Amino acid sequence: MALLGLLVLAVGAAAWYFVGTASGRAVLLAQAAREAVAGGGGAEFDGLRVFLCGTGSPLASPGRAQPCVAVTAGTALYVVDAGAGSHATMQLQRQPTRHLRAVLVTHLHTDHVTGIPDFNLMSWVDGRPAPLEVYGPDGVDRLVGGFNEALAPDRSYRVAHHGMRLLPPKLGVMVPVRIEPGIVHEGDGLTITAFAVDHSPVEPAFGYRFDYRGRSVVVSGDTVVTESLEQAAAGADLLLHDVLSLPIVRAVEEAALAADRPRVAQIFADIPSYHAHASELGGLALRTGVRMLAVYHYVPPPQNAVMEMVYRSELPDDTILTRDGMVFELPAASTEIRVVEP
């Protein structure tokens, strides 16, 4: 016991030295700086790698950014939607963005697009070698043009500060690409297909399917269950689908009415008509034959164990309830799907 006490005192004294002296703090600061600049998950993966940079919705939830799914195929990185806070999740998890090729927008609701300028800026700073393309439905040119115009002063300040060699001005200007359902990218073994979904009155709205080296990932975007989605998801390895819990939504609606908050009640009464209900997704997974079903863009996001249990009670037992920072790894020429917790 005496020896143990001496060891504890010695450890405590060493810790005090590091915290309490300038030289000790310098050592700790250098170590922290090395960890901060060291890259996290690399941009290259032999297969498909999916990083959840946002699993929330417009309904705020601690620890969840708004919708964002980052898909890596080989050395190419694509981001499906970029809601508020999603790039911060990428940074906090040390996910490099210099290989970002494009942002693929499912539709033009604010919670799916307001983080796009953050991805543009930080991938520019990170060394992205070409202008960032933003794919999306009709209206994407107006969205991207507005961002480019609004952020023109910011770009000029950063170029003036860091220099044109480090930040070539033309690489800071985003390029809109209006798309229709069908193949929107094909090359280097990767095929990205856009398909129509139903998020009425938002129209058009898309989901995206990624096929690479025998592996496939489908991101639904916001939609009810539709035939076009089922066709696109058929046989996929991983289906990431938005999800709504009708029992929770109805409970909030009733509580709002009881609290004399009719506007809140009306909003929650309207929501169920344009999101897939949790109770519908088991049948969808069965009909499409997907290997794994995972849900994101929770309406509303589960904030405690009870809410999570409500979601699980309506979903197949093997459904993955995603969290920000979760990773799915689908190695090429395999059937394996590795789920890496944040």
Structure described in brief:
With 342 residues, this protein is α/β, with parallel strands linked by helices. It has helices at 2-20, 22-37, 86-92, 116-125, 140-150, 152-162, 227-233, 246-258, 262-270, 278-288, 305-314; strands at 45-54, 68-74, 76-80, 100-104, 133-136, 175-178, 182-187, 190-196, 206-212, 215-219, 238-244, 292-299, 320-321, 327-331, 338-340. The protein starts with a helix and ends with a strand.
What quaternary form is this?
A: single chain
- Using the 3D structure, state the CATH architecture: 4-Layer Sandwich
Provide the structure class. Answer: alpha/beta
Mean pLDDT across residues: 92
End-to-end C-alpha gap: 39 Å
Please name the CATH topology. Answer: Metallo-beta-lactamase, Chain A
Number of beta-strand segments: 15
Radius of gyration: 23 Å
Task: Walk me through this protein's architecture.
The chain is of the alpha/beta class and 342 residues long. It has one domain: 4-Layer Sandwich (Metallo-beta-lactamase, Chain A), CATH 3.60.15.10. It is built from eleven helices and 15 strands. It has an eight-stranded mixed beta sheet with strand order 6-5-4-3-2-1-14-15. A hairpin with a 6-residue loop joins strand 14 (327-331) and strand 15 (338-340). Helix 1 (2-20) crosses helix 2 (22-37) and helix 8 (246-258) packs antiparallel against helix 9. The longest helix is centred in the N-terminal third of the chain and has 19 residues, at 2-20. The relative contact order is 0.13. The mean pLDDT is 92.
